[in-house]
Inverse folding.
């Protein structure tokens, strides 16, 4: 089974991703930023975050190539 981990890229790439998130959720950007620093795979904590933010942030991770696979 492949496992995913986060690769946040360089500072410019991270900043661009965060600005996209901040533009979409200006009042909740800190929660979105926390998703970038704390494992989104911490089940209980992750479930407490607004679903719209989760969906947007995770799609942003994928768009910017922050998910990498370790293979098996």
């Amino acid at each position: 089974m492949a496992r995913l981990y986060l690769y946040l890229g360089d500072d410019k790439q991270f900043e661009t991703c965060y600005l996209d998130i901040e533009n979409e959720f200006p009042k909740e950007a800190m929660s979105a930023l926390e998703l970038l620093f704390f494992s989104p795979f911490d089940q209980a904590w992750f479930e407490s975050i607004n679903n719209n933010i989760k969906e947007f942030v995770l799609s942003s991770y994928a768009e910017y190539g922050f998910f990498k696979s370790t293979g098996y």
In short: Residues 35 and 57 are 8 Å apart (CA to CA). The chain has a mean pLDDT of 65.
